[in-house]
């Protein structure tokens, strides 16, 4: 018969507690690792050559011997921002989960990389009454040239030394309204998340202000008319306040299949310069345009 001392009996609850804490910590740690982003860079096209896997922000790839060497990549989880210069500066772009056998304009030009984590994951405050967003603006088409990244409203681009400079954009998070004049005036257009390699003649080289808007533009809308590329107010959206002689300038010619008139009486025409068949729409929501669907090239206010 084996006798167990009292001291050993007293140690058992403490031991059990320590084991439980260790298991819980291990589970939490494993979950954190599993949910972290992961990116693998390859030195050649087609996922070939030397490779390097990143799981945390890397502000300087020089230290790892992989600066300006990446030619393809696999984003296994998370959304990653890749930049040409160290410290996440210079031209940047965001890539979601997927395989990228070639990096095109970023080939052999990446110097820093970091995962884009939504602000709510950190429990931090979010701007604009709960809305959060990020947009990257570029001075040349195809997301090239000098760049500026915004996380909050900018009512005058002169203050960020980028007035009348933006030619393309990448909306990383949230919906953004870009306007040709300071103070969110002039020609305005709303951009949902996505890559816009050309802002069109209506905004290219003319953007002077930008701000986050609600998904439906509510509460912050400056436009009198909204055009949608798909029926039911879906697809790409164009917001206008002024007569427009040719929607080609906005990359929206013959694309509108739904519209909202917020104020005034507006004439919509099949051809540029208000030519061809025209129809008048007053305030209201028109989820389908029938015979005018995908045929509008110009519009103007009648009263």
UniProtKB/TrEMBL annotation:
It comes from the Bacteria. The keyword Lyase does not apply. Keywords: Repeat. Residues 37-77, 78-117, 264-303 form the Beta/gamma crystallin 'Greek key' domain. SUPFAM superfamilies: gamma-Crystallin-like. Belongs to the beta/gamma-crystallin family. This is Beta/gamma crystallin 'Greek key' domain-containing protein.
């Amino acid at each position: 018969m084996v006798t167990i001392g009292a001291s050993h009996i007293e140690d058992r609850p403490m031991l059990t507690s320590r084991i439980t804490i260790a298991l819980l910590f291990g589970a939490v740690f494993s979950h954190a690792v599993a949910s972290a982003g992961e990116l693998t860079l390859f030195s050649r096209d087609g996922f070939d050559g030397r490779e390097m896997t990143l799981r945390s922000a890397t502000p300087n790839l020089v230290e790892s011997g992989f600066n300006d060497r990446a030619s393809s990549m696999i984003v296994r989880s998370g959304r990653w921002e890749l930049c040409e210069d160290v410290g996440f500066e210079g031209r940047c772009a965001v890539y979601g989960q997927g395989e990228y056998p070639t990096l095109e304009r970023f080939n052999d030009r990446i110097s820093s990389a970091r995962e884009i984590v939504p602000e709510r994951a950190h429990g931090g405050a979010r701007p604009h009454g709960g809305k959060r967003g990020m947009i990257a603006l570029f001075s040349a088409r195809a997301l090239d040239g000098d760049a500026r990244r915004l996380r909050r409203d900018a009512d005058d681009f002169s203050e960020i030394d980028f007035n009348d400079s933006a030619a393309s954009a990448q909306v990383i998070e949230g919906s953004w309204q870009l306007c040709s004049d300071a103070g969110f005036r002039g020609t305005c257009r709303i951009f949902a998340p996505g890559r816009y390699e050309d802002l069109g003649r209506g905004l290219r080289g003319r953007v002077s202000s930008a701000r986050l808007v609600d998904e439906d533009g509510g509460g912050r809308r400056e436009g009198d008319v909204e055009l949608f590329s798909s029926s039911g107010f879906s697809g790409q959206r164009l917001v206008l306040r002024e007569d427009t002689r040719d929607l080609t300038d906005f990359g929206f010619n013959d694309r509108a299949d739904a519209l909202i008139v917020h104020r005034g009486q507006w004439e919509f025409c099949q051809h540029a310069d208000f030519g061809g068949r025209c129809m008048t729409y007053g305030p209201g929501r028109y989820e389908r345009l029938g015979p005018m669907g995908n045929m509008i090239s110009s519009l103007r206010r009648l009263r």
